[in-house]
Amino acid sequence: MNTDLIIQNISQHIHLDKTETDFFISLLQTKKLKRKEFLLKQGDLCKTENFIIKGCLRTYTIDDNGFEHIVMFGIEDWWVGDLYSFLTQSPSTYFIDALEDSEILQITKVNLDKLFERVPKFERFFRLILQNAFIAQQQRINQNLSYSAEQRYLDFIAKHPNLEQRLSQKQVSAYLGITPVFLSILRRKLSQK
Amino acid sequence: MNTDLIIQNISQHIHLDKTETDFFISLLQTKKLKRKEFLLKQGDLCKTENFIIKGCLRTYTIDDNGFEHIVMFGIEDWWVGDLYSFLTQSPSTYFIDALEDSEILQITKVNLDKLFERVPKFERFFRLILQNAFIAQQQRINQNLSYSAEQRYLDFIAKHPNLEQRLSQKQVSAYLGITPVFLSILRRKLSQK
DNA sequence: GATAAAAATTAAAGTAGTTTAACAAATTAT
DNA sequence: ATAATTTGTTAAACTACTTTAATTTTTATC
């Protein structure tokens, strides 16, 4: 199991000794996902939180008209999952699937609770992770309220320069909240400037 | 100092003994805000996290055209503040002011860090608070992507039936991401049904 | 390497939501 | 109580973005 990335990620926030590290690793499971394979479907219970060590995934909904809306992308070094379904063990409203062949490390709710009990420092770790995610989401909400589609697109590529290359325009437009047609129009307009 | 509400709030998530409770309370300060008074302005450092024991506040930005966009309301039993500015001690991008005469309990970063050190259980408490906030924000992002203005309005009043009565339509429209004129049109249309 | 399937482009018509402006109603200040 | 200010309403013109549909380009599959 390739745990280097997750251990390095954790050590940026809290210090673990050897025993704690080994205990944590013992709670993880590896899973590989082929492109287009689902990690979670609407109606499923989200049984694990998932740390991405390789690849790219998306969390999205499908509305009544069949359109997809992406609430987040996840790449290496990020956590994905439906936190609400995970915590309450109720059916998820989200789909999660792989946009590239991917590899994740999984931890179940039972094991995460064990972890919090045995190594309470992890409460801190997940608090810090959540803080960052909360701040990023708040910024996105503000931009959805105050920016035009063009501004949101420019901000997206500025903030995630490497990510855009890994995504189709269709995925980007589903994240920005516009149609693929309009994103294409925007891009032409911008390239003519 | 009226600490009943905050202690009750905390006890829903973690158990505190008398000493811990007293220590926590010793770190708090009370502040009263008159209607329209600012708790934070763009460019200020956010020096405290704030628990509302009475009243109603809003966190918002003002865009280049002078329009206000509300990222969250806060009422009794909620925390407000600019978490990013608070954590990094960098200038805030948000304004926070009182929509009603309000009363809050404040804790500084120094005292919060002291609290985490002396009573690590509070790491858990804030993790749980953040989890709920994260989930709520994710739902809002999804709705901003997939719902029409009418659907967002109906969802808002369904989800916060008591809150709408305390807000002007102008505030509601700034939260929904539409103009006050259009909200008025929507309301007429809905009342005619 | 050919074929099928999906993604991107372009144009033209359509619509949800904005803008402006004038007025009415409600709230706040004196 | 009155005046001043802010909020809400209505209508009409406007615009950012959508929809539909046809064509081209790219990617996936056998």
TrEMBL record, chains A, B:
Classification via Gene3D superfamilies: Jelly Rolls
Signal peptide from the UniProt entry: none
The protein, known as: Crp/Fnr family transcriptional regulator
A Pfam family that the UniProt record links to this protein: cNMP_binding
UniProt-listed CDD domains: CAP_ED
Source domain of life: Bacteria
InterPro entries membership: cNMP-bd_dom, cNMP-bd_dom_sf, RmlC-like_jellyroll
Species for this entry: Flavobacterium soyangense
Domain named Cyclic nucleotide-binding: residues: 15-116
